[in-house]
Amino acid sequence: MSTGRHLALVPRDGLACRDGRGWAPVGAGRAHALDWPWPSTILGALRTAWGRGVEAREGRRFGPQDWLDRTREVRLGRLLVLKSRSGEVGWQSVWPRPLDATAFEGATEIVRLDPVPPALPTLGRDEDPARGALWRPAMDDLRKPATLPAWWPDEAFCAWLQGAAVSTRELTLGAPERRVQIHVGIRAETLTAEEGRLFSEDVLETVDRSGRWAIGAELEAPDPPPCGVATLGADKRLAAIEPLGEQLFAPPEDLLAAFRPGSRGLRLLVVTPACFAGGWLVDGFRAEDAVYRGSLPGVDGEVVLRAAFVGRPLAVSGWDLVTGRPKRTDRMVPPGSVFFVERADGRPFDAEDARKLWLSAIGGRTEEGFGRIVPGIWHPSRPDPC
User: Fold this and answer.
1) What is the pLDDT of residue 9?
2) Which phi and psi (to 5°) does residue 326 adopt?
3) What residues form DSSP beta bridges with 153?
4) How far apart are CA 248 and CA 209, in angstroms?
5) Residue 358 CB partners (closer than 8 Å, separation 6+)
6) What's the pTM value of the predicted model, to 2 decimals?
7) Which of 28, 149, 14, 39 is CA-nearest to residue 95?
């Protein structure tokens, strides 16, 4: 029988989680690091930690089939990025930058990109009336956009979801610093460097003067829970496993209060990579009468997809340590992407809808932590056509 637990993975010596680019020749002997570990990498670390504990209690080592059979019930649920500021006790949630937010050079106000119905048709190689009818952001400011931080603190992110104004002065969180670590192979016979085995890799430093970064995970696993340390990512870097309060995974009360009067529209923001069979299109939605219609987990009635602000796809893969083979590569929707929906019958979304959607899962590979979303307020605008 499996039990749900809330844990924090606290890296002690940075993170080295490589992307799918090769080492040579185009890589020039260098591995490039991800901005944050894939959910599947986090699940693999926790499965390994749980399995090693069972091995120690039973006094034997698992074979490949044992690992497949015994860890089958170890699943990953909701995930969080955490940071503890220097001098403070406890963790705060950190969130990816929403793709419906922008700013302009020389200004501190963050501008909200609200979609509106298209005024002109689009041309494409394949004709899809539903896709052509998707709403698009309306921008009439000719200033040069500024670069926003990749990670937002919890207060600014929740204010954004509520529809409140956010300033760039509130986005002082920063990001884990990168450093290049060089490796060299050593000949056992002569104890000298082997020229053909000189390579380097990016390492994310998770501890700096501003605080430390960690991973919050909701894990479903048989008793007893994993304890002690886990090896996370490349180089088997150590991460402490600590208990974590469940309240960090609960929807913010301020956001629920903002939904109580009702919101005619809904913004769904992706916070972990999402795997959809249709590429960018959310699973369960289909084209009908020149619009995309579908359903959402826990939400009554049919909804209509009005707009989709989706970033460049991520190529998510990995290495299966049990079979000794690479995992399949999936193209996924990146965190920060935003989907705008309305109910087909026009009813507003309320606080109960927001509660059910908070960190809920959509798409495929959800048992690995992919496809987590959070809801936000959206008030659709339909300007008169020119």
Assistant:
1) 95
2) -70, 145
3) 94
4) 24
5) 250, 251, 255, 374, 375
6) 0.91
7) 149
Question: What is the rounded distance in angstroms from the CA atom of residue 73 to the CA atom of residue 86?
Answer: 37
C-alpha distances in Å from residue 238, one per residue of 18, 46, 66 = 16, 12, 24
Structure tokens at 110: 């963050």
**Counting Cβ atoms within 10 Å, is residue 142 exposed (0-12), middle (13-18) or buried (19+)?**
exposed
Does 329 score more than 50 pLDDT?
A: yes
The answer to whether residues 158 and 354 touch, using CB atoms and an 8 Å cutoff, is: no
Query: Which one is predicted more confidently, 206 or 28?
Result: 206
Going by the DSSP 8-state scheme, the letter that residue 53 receives in this structure is H
Among 137, 136, 174, 132, residue whose Cα is nearest residue 153: 174
Write down the number of H helices and E strands in the chain.
6, 27
CB 230 within 8 A of CB 238: yes
**Pair type for strands 237-243 and 229-232:** antiparallel
180-203 tens-digit pLDDT: 877 788 888 888 887 777 777 788
Query: Distance (Å, rounded) from C-alpha 229 to C-alpha 242?
Result: 9
How many whole angstroms separate alpha carbon 161 and alpha carbon 168? 16
Determine the Cα angle at 380 with ends 379 and 386, to 5°: 140
Q: What tokens were used for 295?
A: 């359903």
**Residues linked to residue 104 through DSSP beta bridges, in sequence order:** 145
Contacts of 345 (CB under 8 A, 6+ apart): 301, 302
Cα–Cα nearest to 321, from 43, 3, 29? 43
Task: Spell 86-97 as b/e; 16+ CB within 10 A means b.
Answer: eeeeebbbbbbb
Asked whether the predicted pLDDT for residue 25 surpasses 80, the reply is no
Amino acid occupying residue 289: D
Confidence of residue 113 (pLDDT cuts 50, 70, 90): very high
CB 199 within 8 A of CB 29: yes
**Where does residue 161 rank: exposed (0-12), middle (13-18), buried (19+ CB within 10 A)?**
buried
Q: What percent of the chain has pLDDT over 70?
A: 93
Strands annotated E in 188-276 = 193-205, 207-208, 211-222, 229-232, 237-243, 265-270
Residue showing tokens 């707009």: 307
DSSP 333: B
